[in-house]
Structure formats: C-alpha cells, structure tokens
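Private note to self, pasted from the team thread so I don't lose it. Backbone tokens:
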C-alpha cells in the first residue's frame, strides 16, 4: 500500500490524486514519504503492458515457483523505484502472471539479504513492513479495484476498494477462494544472511466482478500494477509501472494486462 495516511494527511493525498500527470512531471513535488519526485527523463515512462499466457494445468500454489508453467511464462519488465529511477542492484525482483478458467496467478521472486516482517495475521497493516503487492482494476471506466499483499511470513491482506483509497472495511471482504503461499530462502528474523523469498497468489476470477468476461477472452485488457516494499537492509518502494509520486494508489499509472490464448508450458 505504501505511505499509510493519518487523518491529517489524507486530504493532502486525495488532492494530489487528481493532479494531472503533466503537472506532476513539470517540477519536483514532495511525496509524503520522502524526497522530491524525480522530473528527470528516466521518470517520464510509458505505462507498460504484459501478455498473460494461459496455463494448461492449475498452478500448485506452494510458493516455490517450480511449476513448468512458470518456467515458460514471460517475466514482467524490469521493476523500478516508484519514481521511475533504477532500483538498488541488490533488490532484483522478478514477477510473472498466468490464468486459467478459474484463477489469475501471480508469482514474485525477490532477492533479499534480510527478509523481514513481524505481522502474521490476515488483514493486518502489512504494508508497514516488507511485502509484495498486486493491484487489479479490470475495468478502468469503473473506479473500484482489488489490492493483494503478502509478506515473508505468509500473511495476506486482501482489500476491495470502491474508489482510490476508499476500501471496504478489511475484515468485511475476504476472498473465500484466494490462495497464496511463500517460500523463504533464509529466516524472517530481522537479521542479515538471507538469500530471498518467493510468493505465489491465485485470485479467483469470480472475485473480479468488473471484468468484462469471466474467464477473460483473448485480447481482453485489465489494468494492474505490481509492487514490492523493502525495509531492511535499505528502504525501497519498487513498481512494475512507476507511479511517479509517493503513493501506490494511482490507477491512472497502472499497466495493462493483455490476456492471450498462448498455452504454457
């Protein structure tokens, strides 16, 4: 989620959410979470697009990413800092997506020398620590979207938002069929010496109520963004499609998921 807001700062973010992108890029604007947003050429990025292949067999959601379908799936383009600048070299992040008649699947593989989180309950404020996140907006003409977050301890928060930063109360909307799992190459104890962690999520297509077709038809386009929040040993907020401001809740900056009929593996 990144940059949880106090009641005092909520109005600031709400106002910024409607500032045209051209204005945001015209000069440095201070984000709530830190320094100025870059106006350099590398921050002037296009919204990316990703072709989602169809898996022949359901994914075994165990966090290990060893299904043959994952080996055949294409990765999302290079993750960047949310302001569009290159990420720290030590935080290599790979993500992939697939779908079938029942689920859309996401996989993350995150290099991490200190995988860290302390929250282990569903619907807790996981974004305050280390997480990977998926935001999905199947119909960009409708303001609602779904947010999924998983941390290295395997905790999940699933949120249905009726508009930007307007969630249904967390505990009142939980996907009954949602599946997720993590695998950590190391320990989640706040100490260095880890190698990284991986995560799988399987979101039931029936939960994506604004989608034009269930299951998606070849050529259907959804909006989405993928994020990674890192806290140790250094702080970073990474995005597939950089939001260019200090907030992940920017549907106008989501990339495109394009569903294809290519079968894998």
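Design output:
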């Amino acid at each position: 989620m990144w940059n949880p807001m106090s009641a005092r700062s909520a109005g600031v973010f709400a106002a910024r959410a409607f500032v045209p992108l051209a204005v945001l890029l015209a000069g440095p604007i201070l984000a709530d979470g830190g320094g100025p947003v870059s106006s350099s050429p590398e921050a002037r990025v296009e919204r990316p697009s990703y072709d989602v292949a169809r898996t022949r067999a359901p994914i075994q959601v165990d966090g290990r990413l060893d299904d043959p379908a994952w080996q055949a799936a294409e990765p999302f383009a290079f993750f960047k800092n949310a302001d569009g600048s290159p990420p720290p070299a030590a935080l290599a992040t790979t993500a992939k997506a697939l779908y079938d008649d029942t689920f859309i699947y996401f996989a993350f593989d995150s290099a991490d020398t200190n995988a860290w989180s302390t929250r282990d309950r569903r619907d807790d404020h996981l974004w305050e620590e280390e997480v990977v996140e998926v935001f999905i907006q199947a119909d960009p003409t409708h303001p609602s979207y779904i947010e999924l977050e998983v941390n290295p301890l395997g905790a999940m928060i699933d949120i249905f938002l009726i508009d930007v930063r307007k969630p249904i109360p967390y505990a009142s909307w939980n996907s009954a069929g949602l599946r997720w799992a993590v695998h950590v190459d190391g320990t989640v104890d706040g100490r260095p010496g880890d190698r990284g962690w991986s995560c799988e999520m399987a979101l039931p297509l029936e939960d994506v109520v604004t989608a034009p077709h269930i299951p998606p038809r070849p050529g259907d386009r959804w909006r989405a963004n993928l994020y990674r929040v890192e806290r140790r040993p250094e702080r970073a907020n990474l995005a597939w499609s950089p939001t260019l401001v200090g907030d992940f809740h920017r549907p106008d900056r989501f990339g495109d998921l394009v569903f294809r009929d290519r079968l894998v593996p």
